[in-house]
Amino acid sequence: MDLSRYRTVVVSPHFDDAALSLGGVLQAAPGPVAVVTVHGGRPPAGVEVSEWDYDCGFPTAEDAYDTRVQEDALACEALGADQILLANPDGPYREKTEPLVGLDELVRQVAATADLYLPAGINQPDHARVRDQAIAALGTDGGIRPYFYADLPYTAALPGYADEAGAYLTSPQAWPSEVTELGQRYGHGLDLPRGVPVTGKLWEAKRRAVLCHASQLSLVACMDEVAVPRPLLGVDGLLALEVVWRPSAG
């Protein structure tokens, strides 16, 4: 796997995270673009289906995986990105204490001039594990300055995000604790974030990409972590604003 030719690389913990969190940003991103799904590996043969996959309507883990790979390929096509899968099975099918295979090598292959997007790990432990391992592989001492994207819909369900994330965009005091801690890891902190309102044609395209992941959208929309009075796919709902932070240059 050679990522050096890509000008934009998105590290997506699960099959739907790039579309949910960056479906607007990626439409204006310099290409070629790669979306790398960290938990993109096949479950072990014969493993019992997880509760999540069963509730999504799949009788076996293999059925869920095959469907999600196809959905992700369609979403990547809609976003103009290449699909790259790492060999880690999804959370219910692997030991969470094991390092994520392929991730260290992947982020080190990204060109120094490319835009690398990592999850901020806000309100989502699996995303935080991906973020932490990627930062450890990259280091924080002057190499690539990755972008950290607000994990949607999880971030949008937190207090202070609803009104176009106004406080998030202007005041570090309003940032989630995960972002404050990110800033402390980098010697010069984080820049004020960039907010991308996803409206009009951007929203239409993002909605199409998100709907490619139809097999699990019904459960995503009703998770406890996103139980707020705004619809997931509403025009001004949980996915309508994307926020991206970056470490300061110094």
UniProtKB/TrEMBL annotation:
InterPro entries hit by this protein: GlcNAc_PI_deacetylase-related, LmbE-like_dom_sf
Pfam families reported for this sequence: PIG-L (PF02585)
Keywords, ordered alphabetically: Zinc
Xref: SUPFAM superfamilies: LmbE-like
Name of the protein in its database record: PIG-L family deacetylase
